[in-house]
Amino acid sequence: MGRRAKAHRFLPDVFVFPGGRLDKSDFDHPVKSPLKQSVADRLSQPGDMATALACAAVRETYEETGLVLGDMQKDELAADLSGLNYIARAITPSESPIRFNSRFLIAEGSAAEGKLGGSGELIDLGWYGLSEALRMPVVDVTEFLLEEMQYHSQNGLPDVTHFSLFTYINGISRIRRETL
Predict the structure, then answer these.
(1) Residue 40 structural domain
(2) How many domains does the chain have?
């Protein structure tokens, strides 16, 4: 996790996980190892969206933290998607000035190589334990994700038919357990 600077327009001065927008290049990103089929099915969208979303997660992690999930070939990252699992989804309320519809992927920390650094978008980068992270300044969606991770660390990762959705209904945050 890392903290966003106070000057950021979106979520200033709170701790977040690396992530960001799906780029056109994510659809053609080099892949070392594909997603497990069960994860791809859970992320399924029209076309090849599952692989693009996973490539975006690996790319954003590298850009914001310096950590590599895959291999660096010259200056290009070949993403290893085989260790990713889909854990949750979050959608901002319609009245929010900045909207997102995010899918959260998780991987074992031991799968990441490199040295924490990144682009400078996140400061105070570090590996934080779940209990420690829950005491840090985070927004509701990050708290939800940390609690999901804590639950799954005790009970195992979700099976291929279930995931959690964090959303807002009539301005109140809600968590729904989704079944495919």
Answers:
(1) 2-179
(2) 1
What is each CA distance from 37 to 68, 81, 94, in whole angstroms?
22, 11, 32
- Distance, in Å, from the CA atom of 68 to the CA atom of 63, rounded to the nearest integer, reads 9
- Report, as an integer, the average pLDDT of 67-74: 93
| pLDDT value at 29 more than 90 | yes
Which is higher by pLDDT, 101 or 125?
125
> Which burial class, exposed, middle or buried, applies to 180 when counting CB atoms under 10 A from its CB (0-12, 13-18, 19+)?
exposed
Q: What is the mean pLDDT of residues 128-138?
A: 96
| CATH classification at residue 103 | 3.90.79.10
Cβ neighbors of 152 (< 8 A, separation 6 or more) are: 87, 106, 158
Q: Is the whole model's pTM more than 0.85, yes or no? A: yes
- The distance between the two most distant Cα atoms of the chain, rounded to a whole number of Å, is 49
Tell me the sheet residues that pair with 172: 169
